[in-house]
Amino acid sequence: MFEVREKPQLVEKALLIGVYYDKSEADEAASLLEELRELVETLNIGIGKTTLVKVRETYPSHLMGKGKMAEMIELAKELGCDCIIFDNELSPNQQRNWETDSNILVIDRHEVILDIFSMRARSKEARLQVQLARMQYTLPRMARMWSHLDRQGGGSGGGKGGGGAARGEGEKQIEVDRRLARKKIDRVKAELERVKKQRKTQRKERNRADLPHAAIVGYTNAGKSSLLNCLTESTVLAEDKLFATLDTTTRKFNLEDGQTILLTDTVGFVRRLPHDLVESFKATLEEALLANFLIHVIDGSSKDVIDHHETTMDVLKELGADEKKIVPVVNKIDLIDESRLWELKNNFPEAVFISVKNAHGINDLMDKMADMLLQNVVRHSLRIPQSRQDLIAFLHREGKILSQDYVGNDIILTATYSKRFLAKFAEFVMAETMKGPTTGK
Questions:
Q1: Same domain for 278 and 427
Q2: How confident is the model over 150-185, as pLDDT tens digits?
Q3: Residue 395 is part of which domain span?
Q4: Nearest to residue 76, comparing CAs of 51, 98, 48?
């Protein structure tokens, strides 16, 4: 019967394999394999060895030739590994063939990330999203789960009670499992839709406060949650681990100039992030789509900083959020030397450089955020009746009153406020500013 693994299969030690095809790909393959090591260690799995394999051509059945495959299987057994993990994505057939030939559990980066997401998911929505991604990943791999029937039945035998009977039983059960899986996928999708509607209602209530909104995005472990904690003095979980955050968290934050803004932390990205996970988490990442602007946190201490930046931009593009106004923020500058800092400043000339750890550059970031908000601010001369103290209080709370005078029963004032409130004050704008609102600081 079809079931979803709620927990990763218990594995003690793994052989990690990265496959590449051309010498020019070697450095990137090595970097990706090192990242896979970090991902696997997040699952508390021991690393027997990491090894890169160069192949001349694609082998549809095993990804590599049989000689190299036999060498890898022998290495895994010599090291006492109970799992082989590929950095490259394996097709269902390749995964099944490797497990049949090695009698060892074989998974790929895709499944490792799924296991991490399963472990990290806390909210109901995140758990449902991971469950959906897991089922969609498992569905085409049903035959792999029943491959043991072939071996128990004697391989290719076709007589009564032999391999043919076992295969027939397995094939029938696979079809039953697939039907059950599709029904369960539909149920989870429906439940996710209900949760999404609830979140949309919550967002509407939040939007009634008419507060501007920024979403913090970036590569996993770049310091997004730590930045949210630093700015808002909150205690969102922030660990030095990949994918420490899966659930979005929103906090209210007051800038130095008195402007109030909502800040949302989002799930981190990673190279070769499975497409189905991007799809599953699109609902959560809508926070990035709906924000007024994005704060893109970049780990300046990573040697793969350019790749990480490009990966984040690629995922934002896939989400349709790449045309948002973006504030690039290079974090962890306390971990780099002066020459590296200058190199990063050349690569990211528009960035704010900070260290969340020692709060260096945080004031610069807040100034930049204030500037971003001011791009959506108008400066108007207003004539408001003294009886409308509610509007005066609103401007004190949500805008900035630059000058104020009293003429008869009216208050004449100059104020800056968000363009979102133009309709609210339209009837009070004085003639000299009716030609059109001007942006100002």
A1: no
A2: 444 444 444 444 445 555 565 677 788 889 999 999
A3: 376-439
A4: 48
In a domain, 176, yes or no: no
User: Which residues neighbour 283 within 8 Å (Cβ) at sequence distance 6 or greater?
Assistant: 125, 129, 192, 195, 196, 199
Nearest in space to 98 (alpha carbons), one of 15, 181, 185, 203: 15
161-171 in b/e form (b: 16+ CB < 10 A) is eebbbbbeebe
Domain boundary among 102, 120, 138: 120
CATH of the domain at 391: 3.30.70.240
Query: What is the pTM for the complete model shown?
Result: 0.75
Residue whose pair of structure tokens reads 């059950």 in the numeric block: 180
Residue-wise burial string across 375-390, b where 16 or more C-beta atoms lie within 10 A, e elsewhere: eebbbbbbebeeeeee
230 with 260, same domain: the answer is: yes
Q: Which residue has the tokens 């059945």?
A: 61
Neighbours of 66 (CB within 10 A): 11
Q: Please tell me the distance from the alpha carbon of residue 439 to that of residue 441, in angstroms, as a whole number.
A: 7
